[in-house]
Design brief:
- By secondary structure, the chain is of the alpha+beta class.
- The chain has three domains: 142 residues, no CATH class; 102 residues, no CATH class; 175 residues, no CATH class.
- The chain is 39% helix and 14% strand.
- The chain has an eleven-stranded antiparallel sheet with strand order 6-5-4-9-3-10-11-12-13-7-8.
- Strand 4 and strand 5 form a beta hairpin.
- The longest helix has 24 residues.
- The radius of gyration is 27 Å and the shape is globular.
- It starts with a helix and ends with a strand.
Amino acid sequence: MDQTTNRKVARLIESRVCMTIRSYRGNLLVVTHTIDAGWIPNGNEPGIEGHVQALKEYLASTGRPEADPFLLRLALTVPGRQRGVVPPVKALELNGNGFTDRRKQEAAGQIDRLNEVLSLARRFLSGLSTDTSQALRQLADIAVAPADKASSDWLDQIQSLSTEESGKVSAIALQCLENIARPVHELGVDLLESLACFRFEPLGSDICRLLRTKGIFWLASLYRDAGESEANALLDLLEEANDTLAINHLLLCVAWTRSNIAVERFRDWSQQSPSWASLLHVPPADYLPSAGWCLNANGELHDLISMNCHRLQPADRAGPDAIRCFIPCRQKCPGCESPTVVLFDFTTIQAELPENAPVKVYCCLYCSMFEPTFVRYFLDQSWEWLPSEATNPRTFDFVIKPRNVSLVMEKCPPFASEKVFELDDATAIGGVPMWLQDAEYPHCPTCGNWMTFLAQHDNSAVQNEGIFYAFFCPSCKMSAVNYQQT
């Protein structure tokens, strides 16, 4: 592997590490403030040596031995800081109840957090000081620094990797999985998930085999298109599982293999329920939409998504290729009497739509927040509301602001939105939805089948919460809109 490849991969990994370090911002700023305030004992003060020894013994008894003198002395200030005592070590004096087990637990918690971020940084960042206090200051500077371009354009960075570079990232990720430090291990899973979701090709059966042998079954999208052999191995584990959580994870992994054996086994389970199904809240087949497919009437794989996926980017004005969003309509919702909107007007890109998809998606934004709203559409672009249970009239108290977007012509990997919260603006047509909660494909009110995902609007792009999802049933000419938020 040439040096250019190594440098590119190193920069990419370093940007991800720095993003993780920012999640420790609070802990690191507490450290620098404690140092600057002069609150960390130097070890010679009366009673401090005894407190350090007591903390070391406590950590050893809980399986977390610690020998770093700076971390131990720093940790002595944690109970006092939490109680507003100045200087903080006074909280450990006998008239302050002494160094109780609860206070030792508080002190140990800060050591744990700092050791986590130090283990990650020392594994991947060059130039980190060997002196613990200086290293923590360096990490505090990283934690407050703005994110670099590689962090903000993570999808683009992963997509731009060559096959050789992708293999190098995979190798580093697998090395991380061997590390017992939690953030290093989590970085490995994160890198593999990024490769699985942000690239067109799957991770491959060899990597999935390693994940399986390590007992890593979450996130299930890691097993996307893993192959028949891996699906069989997961099914063997499923037959041995005896608790609900393990069964849930394994079912999702099998579904994400999107394999022939998965289709066959889910079809069998729909005809004869397996013994472990009594531990589930829903039938096994209800796990399939999480992987973007279901079984059709003939027991065959039916995609609930379009593999032709494009992101939708902001457009300054309504040009000839603009897709208009949130267009107010004159007609009020027959249920709540709120104004209705055209969530998406795809008139300018009809050629990119799936067959028989609606050109315009109508909805009531308010009602869609509580349950799917359905509209019957016609190919001449006329439409009609499907009768629904009426709700009380309400005052419409949020502003509808029309927005223009345009199609990014370069195709996006269809499973990119599976990596939740990773995209600054997840607005897209096709691919999988970015579910903020559980997968909720509506059932068509006419035929009862799960509806196909069409597009989503990420409201964070307009400084609002949540995502609106649009679906359609091509055979019944029915569209639906629902909504999720965290």
